[in-house]
Fold this sequence. Notes:
Layout: H1 3-14, H2 24-35, H3 44-55, H4 59-71, H5 76-92, H6 96-103, H7 115-128, H8 132-144, H9 151-161
Amino acid sequence: MTDDWEERVAAAWATFDDYPEDRAADFRSVIDTLVAELPSGSPLGPFEQAGAWDSTGHSDKAVPLYREALALGLSGTKGREAKIQLASSLRNIGQAEEGVKLLTPELDAPSDELDDAVRAFLALCLSSLGRDREGLSLVLGALAGHLPRYQRSTANYAAALR
Length: 162
């Protein structure tokens, strides 16, 4: 993988909204063409393909690809993105409990720009399981740090919901 490849993948994703629903397969083909350039066994291939299936409404086809990417060793920011996206896809196909199990350990992972996304998608999984108070607690806790005022109050209310 090169920086050029990453830039071309980012450029492809930047055009995603240019593909109407009836041309979703065309977008997936663009991603498949880029993935074909990767060495065999690269975790980036199934990760990008999973995202393409997921984004075109096929969470069921995305789940095994996300799992493959993680099994192949996808790590760092992309690995965390894969876990978030996998949890979302699992929720979409009725397996929210597995999404909760996947994202809960991420609450204790080293902090990065994806912390709030972890909380948001974990909250969605919890809500799908009827655990709305826990989900709301996570979302309010994430929101508290972004508020110009009432940060302490919002964080305290979030903790009280648990």
